[in-house]
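Predict the assembly for these two chains.
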Amino acid sequence: MSESAPTLTFTEAARAGLAEEMERDPSIFVVGEGIGPRGGNFNTTLGLFERFGPRRVRDTPIAERGFIGMCTGAAMVGARPVVDFMFLDFILDAFGELINQIAKIQYMSSGRIAMPMVLRGCIGIGGSAATHHSGNYYPFFAHQPGFRVVVPSTPHDAKGLLKTAIRSDDPVLFLEHRLLMATKGPVPTEEYLEPIGKAKVRTTGNDATVVTVGAMVQRTLDAVSPLSEDGLSIEVVDLVSISPLDIPTILESVSKTGRLLIVDEDYEPCGIGAEICARIVKEGFDFLDAPIARLNSAQAPIPYSPVLEKAIAPSKEDIASAVLDLLAQ
Amino acid sequence: MRPPDALDFYRGMLQIRNTEGQLVRAYRNGEIMGACHTYNGQEAVAVGVCANLSPKDVVFSTHRGHGHALAKGVSADAVAAEMFGRATGTSNGRGGSMHLFAPEVGMMGTTGIVGPNILQATGAAYAFQLLEKEEVAVAFFGDGAVNNGAFHEGLNLATIWELPVIFVCENNLYATEIAFSYSAGNPEVANRADAYGLPGEAIDGNDVMKVWETAGQMIERARKGGGPSLLECKTYRTRAHAEGMPDVGYRSQEEVASWEQRDPIARHRAYLLAHGVATPKGLEELEAASLQAAIDAMEFARTSPWPDPATATKNVFAET
């Protein structure tokens, strides 16, 4: 990364990536509610309507199943739709389109029809958004054959991954945590792409590995940083990609630390922690000095009151405590 | 519009009827393992509509889609081989009857789910408009689909954006075995177009010339930027919902017999003779050749190789 990389917010970086791709390829178009002249509920398309016009930056009625099914057909004949769904909760109305159609058409057509579609928008707990605007849901999609799923945690990754997602011939869910959208970071001016399926070690350490994703990455870094004062060194791995999972990077880390904690804002049962745990036990059992631990949100719909909301998601203190418990094993 | 080729329409409908007839035999002797929903009785719709389309135009079909595939130009060999689960099928045997894809001729899939193809055809039309192409998209669906939300959302989206898509409802009166008269508060389909602001028309779907003419006008309008249309073709399937299912208890034998009297192929045969388009001898030769081609398609499928089991996980993603 160049020294002089300007600082952008997560949303600005993703928007710059989208604009670069739309400039490059006229078959890319964006649909969503309020993404036209308004520029998107989260400013994801601010200024793009004026730049690319109404056919490429298209406001839709509130008809998630309709416009996602529509984008399926557009992708089947060679266009490259970007669905800006605002909140991931909203596209559950299109679950049949997603699972039965979008994820399966490449396979069912024996690879003769591509499915170059990006579905991007907000996930995550925070801001008293309550249960219809807070969902994470990504294990659903990682479970199903046919989807790529990425959850970037930095502006740099947001831009590079969105560009890669748009160029992919596979359907990609690009999930943006609400608490990350205004966070800032360096973003190179020169063009770059980030690979889907590659985890990143955010800080190195020898005593334990914490694998995490999305907004939990910074929270985990904040939680483990003070532990260094006690001489503890914790390695933090940012998954970046939920599907495919980068198991080799996790294995390499665990081979060094012998201990693994998975911190995930989504629910525990049948979640990504369960999958990572099974894979590491199978492929790295001899590395482990302690049982693999998980820290997740409590399994309940996400409540409104800040007091209740806070009680659901893992806090910095919860993460630090879980790390210390793991080290005590 | 291109001038009608009435003899070609006959050939097309006969190909569908004969292929279905042979597929039924193959189903009965166990060579077709999965679903087989025949198109018998509805042939005029697929043939009349698709006669107006080029290979670059696209159709999105249903679970009852063999006729659409054949009318759009997919070979009977490839359709049969797919249903026999063979490597030479349209999807190398991984799809079967309800997943027939042949994008090279604009056949964008039969489907096992009622409704989504309405949205997909709308989306293909969106892409054509975006990329400034002259192509049009067609969605075929039954009366069962019009009470599904996809119909509502698709017709509305197509209308507000003036997309080049034709919605062809094959109203055969029954969704599986549920009568449309039971499941719809409004017994008509075509006039639902008024609710969305697009043109709608109901026609005799067993009259191939009428289907060809009306669909042709709608397609031409769409091609010129005039937006979408809804075409209701009143028709009837004369076999059970699916092979292997009994066809009793939900409709009378008298009703079936009355529709058999309106069989689109017999009617068109009479038309050809009455208008001097063909001679009885000419038609008999054509009929014999059509039957033989259908038999040959089954033999092609029967003697085709099975897919390599090692390919079972290929193409889940684009690069694999």
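Chain B has a mean pLDDT of 97. Chain B touches chain A through 47 residues (CB under 8 Å).
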